[in-house]
Amino acid sequence: MQFRLRPLPRLLLGLSGLTLALAGCASTGSDKPLDLSQGVPVGAVLALTSNANVYGQDQQLGMQLAERWFKGKVMPIRLRIEDGGGDEQAASQAFNLLIDAGVVALIGPTLSQQAFAADPIAQRRGVPVVAPSNTAEGIPQIGSFISRVSASSAVIAPLSIKAALKRDPSIRRAAVFFAQDDAYSSSEAAIFQSALAAKGLKPVTVQRTQLNDQDFQNQITAALRLKPDLIVISAQAVDGGNLIRQLRELGYKGSIVVGNGMNTPNIYPICQAYCDGILIAQAYSPELDSAINKAFVTLYKEATGGAIPPQLSAQAFTAYQVVAEALTRLNRHTPINGRPLIEVRQELMQELLSGRYDTPLGAIAFTPEGEVVQERFHVAEVQMEPGGRSGRFALLE
Amino acid sequence: MSSGVEHLLQVLFNGLASGAVYALFALGYTLVFSVLGVINFAQGALFTLGAYFTYLLIGGAVGSNGALAGFQLPLALPFWLALLLAGAGAAGMGLLVEATAFAPLRQRRAEPLLFLISSLGAGVVIVNGVQLLMGAESYSIPAGSLGRLPAAVLIGGAQVRTVQLLLMAVAAVVLVVLTLWLEGSRLGKALQAVSEDPVTARLLGIDAGAMIRLAFALSGFLAGVAGGLVALSVSIAGPYFGIGFGLKGLGVLVLGGLGSVPGAMLGGLVVGLAEALVPAEFSGYKDGVAYGFLFLVLLLRPRGLLGKATVSKV
Predict the structure, then answer these.
(1) Is A162 within the bounds of a domain?
(2) A385 and A245: one domain?
(3) Where are the alpha helices (DSSP H) in chain B?
(4) CA A31 – CA A158 distance, rounded (Å)
């Protein structure tokens, strides 16, 4: 007996088959030969919207400057920047979009919280990731395709505690504030507490906030009742800036140490004159005496009318540089045009980790795990200009 | 004064300060809800606009990322004047929202859900427009904008920021003025008549369309003023900063009783106090406590604290 399908089931079956076939094509998309006719496709996922946009905009500028600087010096790159918003879902979607579009490597996402969600996608699909600003512990450990140029908070954060205690050895009562709904802040707050413990200080209080909080009156008045003489803040720029302003307005006069999330001039308009005197450890110094840093600072000043580049822009520039130089080296010894994307991605990751790079951050390399190895770190004090409209990160000796 | 009383007073002020902002927000929602029976989801965007207008009118410059990078108005108004003009600007935008997102649907007698989506869309467009023009960076109103007033004052041992006292005062004044106006003026009574029964109000010669526009303008004004004051208190955290306040204001509106002006104020203060009563070590969970409290109240009193019971005629 001959079995005949009616038109509708036949159509549905046909569509299912087509869907499966397309899915099959998608799953083997990374086997496609790499087409370099318009440059090597590289993707970046930055927080251009949401409360984290203050970082994404710094990073976008850093990458644009890198594109301009390295044009003609490395193999042509076609950079595609996608908005990763400020949450995990948006970053994951942007990662998927760019991977499907056939990028050989990804730069981003902006926040550590996002990286813990988006990086496993790149890892599963075998796409190298260079994080320009993820400082939480455990980022490179997500997988063999994940690396970062942003040194871990565990390395940097204790430096500012040390500097605060050196400046005022009489400090005895530290209070810690951190944004509990943010992976980076939680991770960094734990590091700060360990650094305090190493100096024999147990926090008199640990106050939890949230990234979207803007009014900290409850937490501040509770903390100030315990009369702290050092306040340590691990938060992002907007909430952290507001916290500092309100701390000072409510009468706190002691030292303030802040974490990497506030490592941006975007805090100036928020805490204004109250930003003055806060201490922060940094992975970048605009004063570093190297040819590439001088070039970067000049480019940045030209683009912004004379502003001093922040760490986030320098790290984004560096992330682009690492990918571009690794690609160029790889292409030099094994031309990548026309080769399967999957192979290029794998070899690029090996090449990327094996290189040494002379960057605006100084000379950097990577551990086999993808962790950045950086030689120099700095501690800066924010010094605001009279009127509190602008300021600078002045390096401490 | 004992430290226990001082602590209680501190909690009370903390709660009133947050509650005043929520209440101002909820009053704006209430005005529109009372005449149209729908919620204007663009209220958060009008709040954002009020903050940006205030910033520009006091002479603030646009940062380096927006299409208006470096732009600065050739004036620097005193804060209070800037705040009032910003409120007027937000009121104008409220009218625009009414004309574009509400009036066409009203003419077609669309489902209430469509008004929500339409106003949400208008809000998103406004916020995106702000980001396009002003960039996404944060802006602050200079700390000295209140003249020689101190940054904070000590009241019975409780530290309170001056700007928060102002927010409480403004909320109280708005409540009193709005109540007196609604109860004692012809225009206020006409607005109430439209909110009770638009058809009968029309038969009585009241221009219902004009009353609806008035509600949107007033609601936009309140949102704009609240936005400017909050910007002074905590800075403008980017174009999205009205959204969080908008959600809380919505909760307050429901808690106080949909369409009730005193209810909106009471709801704001109750939510503010509920948040302030959360021990400081757990204040990261204050939203959960506030919304949990809201849930409990609605479970026991579904029409909200001061809402009127709905009577169905069969």
Answers:
(1) yes
(2) yes
(3) 3-36, 43-57, 79-97, 103-107, 112-134, 162-184, 186-196, 198-203, 208-234, 241-256, 261-276, 286-300
(4) 45
- Pair A113, A50 in one domain: yes
How near does any CA of chain B get to the CA of A238, in Å? 6
What radius of gyration do chain B's Cα atoms show?
20
Instruction: Express each pLDDT in A313-340 by its tens digit.
Output: 999 999 999 999 999 999 999 999 999 9
Same domain for A172 and A268, yes or no, is yes
Residues 219-248 of A with CB under 8 A from B: 219, 221-225, 237-239, 241-242, 245-246, 248
B252: distance to nearest CA of chain A, Å?
Answer: 17
- Residue A269 touches chain B, beta carbons under 8 Å: yes
CB A195 within 8 Å of CB A176: no
Which residues in A lie closer than 8 A to residue B284 (C-beta atoms)?
Answer: 179-181, 208-210
Question: Is residue A230 located within the same domain as residue A123?
Answer: no
CATH number of the domain residue A44 falls in: 3.40.50.2300
Contact criterion met (CB < 8 Å) for A208 and B282: yes
A240 and A384 share a domain?
yes
In a domain, residue B251? The reply is: no
Helices (H), B68-197: 79-97, 103-107, 112-134, 162-184, 186-196
Portion of chain A with pLDDT greater than 90, in percent:
70
B contacts of A212 (beta carbons < 8 Å)? 244
- Per the structure, the complete domain to which residue B78 belongs is given by 24-240
pLDDT for residue A8: 47
The per-residue pLDDT for B283 is 72
Residues of A in contact with B20 (CB under 8 A): none
What's the domain count of chain A? 2
What would the pLDDT profile of A77-103 be if each residue is shown by its tens digit?
A: 999 999 998 889 999 999 999 999 999
Q: Which of A207, A238, A246 sits opposite B138 (nearest CB)?
A: A238
Q: Do A137 and A201 lie in a common domain?
A: no
Which pTM value belongs to this model?
0.79
Predicted pLDDT of residue B2: 66
For strands A255-258 and B152-155, give the pairing.
Answer: unpaired
CB contact under 8 A, B140 and A270: yes
CA–CA gap between residue B289 and residue B277 (Å, rounded): 9
Judge whether A339 is closer than 8 Å to chain B, CB to CB: no
Percentage of chain B exceeding pLDDT 70: 97
Query: Where does residue A30 rank: exposed (0-12), middle (13-18), buried (19+ CB within 10 A)?
Result: buried
Q: What mean pLDDT is reported for chain B?
A: 88
Other CB atoms within a 10 A radius of the CB of residue B67 amount to 12
Give the domain extent around A353: 40-151+290-366
Residues A250 and A341 in one domain: no
Residues A323 and A341 in one domain: yes
With a cut of 0.90, is the ipTM above it?
no
Tell me whether residue A31 is in a domain: no
CA atoms within 13 A on the CB side of A87: 4
pLDDT over 70 at A21, yes or no: no
> Does A169 reach chain B within 8 Å, measured CB to CB?
no
Tally of domains within chain B = 1
